[in-house]
Amino acid sequence: MFTRFLCGVAFAALSVSAASADNLPTEKSKVTLVFDHALPNVPGKSMKGVLVEYQPGGSSPAHTHPESSFIYATVLEGAIRSKINDGPEKVYRAGENFAELPGDHHSVSANDSKTQPARLLAVFVVDTDEKNLVTNDK
User: Fold this and answer.
1) Distance of CA 97 to CAs 24, 71, 74, Å?
2) What's the rounded Cα separation, in Å, for the pair 126 and 121?
3) Among the four residues 71, 96, 113, 114, which has the most C-beta atoms within 10 Å?
4) 85-119 tens-digit pLDDT
């Protein structure tokens, strides 16, 4: 049921203009903030939706997220290859999802296809004042 909720949020967010979105270019990927809403029943926390679009063969650099963030990601299109911390590298297909806990290291995030695009929606629950949602490895 929660997955259905997130998919509904994803499609609603995609239909809304992203005029205030932050586009952060990475290697063959596009990252867009599609919604940012304070949680009225959890002071100091917000829910932020990030649409990640990968071109065929695209990827993001290894990265971490803010210590205050919990992330629930749903693949909207294609297949995403992911590796978090010391866990196994896994491929998630459209409709599948995964979570990232505070402090997790996302060492692999890539389109599993060299010929088809892929998209995912990452929903963050994070401190409201947090502006930098991704810190790439150095």
Assistant:
1) 23, 10, 4
2) 15
3) 71
4) 999 999 999 999 999 999 899 999 999 999 999 99
User: What is the Cα–Cα distance from 29 to 48, expressed in whole angstroms?
Assistant: 19
What is the average pLDDT score of the chain? 85
Q: What is the token pair recorded at 48?
A: 């932020």
Tokens for 100? 């990232």
* Percent of the chain surpassing pLDDT 70: 80
Amino acid at site 117: P
Residues 45, 39: Cα–Cα separation, whole Å: 6
Q: Tokens 């290894």 label which residue?
A: 62
DSSP 55: -
Question: What is the pTM for the complete model shown?
Answer: 0.78
Domains of the chain in start order, with CATH, are: 2-136 (2.60.120.10)
Q: Which residue has the higher pLDDT, 74 or 21?
A: 74
Phi, psi of 15, rounded to the nearest 5 degrees: -85, -10
